């Protein structure tokens, strides 16, 4: 049987795998089926199929890596969220910005032009669910028994730790 402590440690360790979220301006890229309107897309994609020819995006050049080609992002604006496929790099975008097809920008922000505040993260193209971030380690950083004890406790407000069902000051743990 799995102990409560083991479950809490497992939950703590997997919490570090949350997908990274970015925020910036969403801008208009081009119309449906025109992912190459500013020149050939940096990923070199041909036909992507009906869905992705309408919902595509470009990441800022300073965030773009060849490994992002074909990945999907969920972009959320004032109106709703939309999933788009990465096909290009955006030279005029700042870190956290994202350049979207007009349809994707309109669905998420209500506008198909202008700069509008959005948040975005990488998601699965199939399900639209957030992907795990490979950058964070699941290993604890603390040393010794006191650190291990704290990992197994739920954190309470104001730097207190839950022990025996009650919140206590960290120095009391």
Uncertain ranges? 4-17, 133-163
Biggest sheet overview: 6 strands, mixed, barrel
Tally the structural domains: 2
Give the overall shape, derived from the CA principal axes. Answer: globular
In N-to-C order, the SSE pattern is HEHEEEEHEHEE
End-to-end separation in angstroms reads 27 Å
Q: What is the structural class?
A: alpha+beta
Mean pLDDT: 75
Main β-sheet, spatial strand arrangement: 1-5-2-4-3-6
Evaluate the radius of gyration. 21 Å
Quaternary organisation: single chain
Q: In the CATH hierarchy, what is the architecture of the largest domain at level 2?
A: Beta Barrel
Residues in helices, as a percent range:
10-25%
Number of strands: 8
**And the CATH topology of the largest domain?**
Barwin-like endoglucanases
The CATH homologous superfamily of the largest domain corresponds to RlpA-like domain
CATH classification, class level of the largest domain? Mainly Beta
Percent in strands: 25-35%
Précis, in short:
Residues 125-173 are annotated as: Disordered. It comes from Chlorella ohadii. With 173 residues, the protein is α+β, with helices and mostly antiparallel strands.
Short key terms for the protein model shown above:
173 residues, alpha+beta, 2 domains, two-stranded antiparallel ribbon, 4 helices, 19% helix, globular, Expansin_CellWall
Account of the 3D structure:
The chain is of the alpha+beta class and 173 residues long. It has two domains: 4-10 and 138-172, no CATH class; 21-123, RlpA-like domain (Barwin-like endoglucanases). Helices cover 19% and strands 27% of the residues. It has helices at 4-15, 50-54, 102-109, 144-151; strands spanning 21-28, 56-60, 72-76, 81-90, 98-100, 116-123, 160-163, 166-169. The strands form two sheets. Strands 1-5-2-4-3-6 form a six-stranded mixed beta barrel. β7 (160-163) and β8 form a beta hairpin. The longest helix has 12 residues, at 4-15. It starts with a helix and ends with a strand.
């Amino acid at each position: 049987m799995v102990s409560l402590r083991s479950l809490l440690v497992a939950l703590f360790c997997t919490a570090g795998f949350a997908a990274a979220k970015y925020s910036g301006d969403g801008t208009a890229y081009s119309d449906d089926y025109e992912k190459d309107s500013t020149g050939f897309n940096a990923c070199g994609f041909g036909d992507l199929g009906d869905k992705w020819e309408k919902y595509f995006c470009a990441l800022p050049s300073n965030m773009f890596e060849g490994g992002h080609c074909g990945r999907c992002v969920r972009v959320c604006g004032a109106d709703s969220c939309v999933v788009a496929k990465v096909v290009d790099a955006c030279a005029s975008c700042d870190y956290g910005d994202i350049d979207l097809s007009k349809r994707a920008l309109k669905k998420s922000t209500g506008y198909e032009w202008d700069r509008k505040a959005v948040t975005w993260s990488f998601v699965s193209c199939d399900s639209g669910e957030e992907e795990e971030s490979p950058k964070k380690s699941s290993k604890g950083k603390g040393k010794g028994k006191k650190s291990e004890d704290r990992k197994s406790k739920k954190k309470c407000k104001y730097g207190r730790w839950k022990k025996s069902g009650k919140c206590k000051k960290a120095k009391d743990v």
